[in-house]
Amino acid sequence: MPQLRQNIITGEWVVIAPARSKRPDDYIRAQKREVKDELASACVFCLNGSEFKRRLKNFDNKHTWTIQNKFPAFACDEKECSDRTRSYYPEHQFYRA
User: Fold this and answer.
1) What's the predicted TM-score (pTM) here?
2) Cα separation of 26 and 77, whole Å?
3) CA–CA separation, 89 and 83 (whole Å)
4) Which among 41, 60, 61, 62 has a CA at the least distance from the CA of 52?
5) In this structure, is the dihedral angle defined by the CA atoms of residues 82, 85, 86 and 89, taken in order, positive or negative?
6) What whole-number distance in Å separates Cα of residue 40 and Cα of residue 49?
7) In 63-85, which positions are buried (b, 16+ CB within 10 angstroms) versus exposed (e)?
8) Are 11 and 20 in contact (CB under 8 A)?
9) Secondary structure element (H or E) that encloses residue 65, with its range
10) Cross-referenced SUPFAM superfamilies, in alphabetical order (predicted)?
């Protein structure tokens, strides 16, 4: 589970993610895969894909789109997350330590 830590000397906040400690060489694949049609239709960024319409959220501005991060740095269960336990307050733009 990633942790948010503060450097007590500089005050800088740092994300420590031990689960993401693999080296870039650990992600190299032996062979390239071909993109199949069923994979292309599941692509969130492909305009004609089924996932594009299902997962992207459009705001009032037609040039702004959002998609939920598939691998977020911080995550918690719905039961654990509440206004009482959250650390970031976007309305005030600050983190609570």
Assistant:
1) 0.34
2) 29
3) 9
4) 41
5) positive
6) 7
7) eeeeeeeeeeeeeeeeeeeeeee
8) no
9) strand 65-66
10) HIT-like
Structure tokens at 63: 């040039």
What is the token pair recorded at 20? Answer: 């993401």
Amino acid at 70: K
Q: Is 53 helix (H, G, I), strand (E, B) or coil?
A: helix
The pLDDT confidence band at residue 15, using thresholds 50, 70 and 90, is confident
Tokens of 70: 């598939």
Query: Where is pLDDT greater, at 66 or 83?
Result: 66
Q: How many angstroms separate the CA atoms of 47 and 68, rounded? A: 17
Q: What is the pLDDT of residues 23-78, one digit of tens each?
A: 666 667 777 766 666 666 677 777 666 776 666 666 566 666 677 777 777 766 55
